[in-house]
């Protein structure tokens, strides 16, 4: 699959059920007033959109995948959901006070997308990237974690948040320096939700059906019944449009 992010359309329900949300207080770290018009770019099923909609009166959510956007429209009906991509944002110039990107940023960390973000942002507006990452040690059996590592290694799909090159397009754009802050929070999951979280990961979601089913069966066999509590670190990186 040339565009691995398209695999998320196959697992929209699992993504919405099992992926962690973001703590509302992460927005308190930003220099952005409560009356702002904001864009959630690559909004997925609306994990971050829901948080934004509780704080800002006008939230636009742009998502290219139909199944993901259908969930978004159901769970955040107050948001203005639109089809579109980061490289071709369906908004007028200087039309929003802030652009947010969550986990999807890794898939469009390129100069064309950053130029589009700068185009729709008003001067002095905020571009914020909000991510969730689990804090080690994870409450998972080592055999289960090792099987996941094998799948990631075999598919060669990886997140770029630990790679500073993901932020180079921002440095080349009309933005100030990048600031950061973080808030730790907890996610409590049943065994079923842990397995659905795994199914929602791109390296598994993009596999052919038979291979995906085999990996999911392997993981299920390695995960005991019980409740699993994860510490999750929400990080916001933000900059100002010049």
H/E element order = HEHEHEEHEHHEHHHE
Briefly note the CATH topology name of the domain at 4-132 and 157-184 and 233-240: Rossmann fold
The helix count comes to 9
The CATH superfamily of the domain at 4-132 and 157-184 and 233-240 bears the name: Vaccinia Virus protein VP39
**Beta content:** 15-25%
Largest sheet: 7 strands, mixed
Indicate the structural class.
Answer: alpha/beta
CATH architecture of the domain at 4-132 and 157-184 and 233-240: 3-Layer(aba) Sandwich
Radius of gyration: 18 Å
Tell me the helix content: 25-40%
Instruction: Note the gap between the termini.
Output: 37 Å
Overall description:
This protein has 242 residues and is of the alpha/beta class. It has a domain at 4-132 and 157-184 and 233-240: Rossmann fold. It is built from nine helices and seven strands, in the order H-E-H-E-H-E-E-H-E-H-H-E-H-H-H-E. Strands 3-2-1-4-5-7-6 form a seven-stranded mixed sheet. Helix 1 (12-18) crosses helix 7 (191-199). The longest helix has 14 residues, at 142-155. The protein is globular, with a radius of gyration of 18 Å. The N and C termini lie far apart (37 Å).
């Amino acid at each position: 699959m040339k565009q691995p992010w398209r695999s998320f359309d196959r697992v929209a329900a699992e993504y919405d059920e099992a992926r962690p949300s973001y703590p509302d207080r992460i927005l308190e770290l930003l220099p952005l007033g409560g009356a702002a018009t904001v864009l959630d770019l690559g909004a997925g099923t609306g994990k971050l959109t829901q948080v934004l909609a509780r704080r800002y009166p006008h939230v636009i959510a742009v998502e290219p995948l139909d199944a993901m956007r259908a969930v978004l429209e159901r769970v955040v009906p107050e948001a203005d959901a639109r089809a579109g991509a980061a490289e071709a944002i369906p908004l007028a110039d200087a039309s929003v006070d802030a652009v947010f990107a969550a986990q999807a940023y890794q898939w469009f960390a390129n100069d064309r997308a950053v130029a589009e973000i700068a185009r729709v942002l008003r001067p002095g507006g905020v571009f914020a990237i909000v991510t969730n990452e689990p804090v080690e040690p994870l409450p998972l059996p080592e055999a289960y974690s090792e099987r996941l590592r094998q799948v990631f290694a075999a598919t060669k799909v990886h997140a770029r948040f630990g790679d500073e090159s993901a932020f180079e397009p921002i440095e080349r754009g009309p933005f100030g320096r990048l600031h950061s802050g973080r808030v730790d929070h907890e996610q409590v999951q049943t065994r079923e939700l842990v397995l659905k979280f795994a199914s929602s990961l791109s390296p598994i979601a993009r596999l052919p059906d038979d291979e995906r089913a085999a990996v999911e069966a392997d993981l299920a066999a390695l995960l005991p019944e019980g409740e699993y509590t994860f510490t999750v670190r929400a990080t916001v990186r933000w900059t100002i449009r010049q």
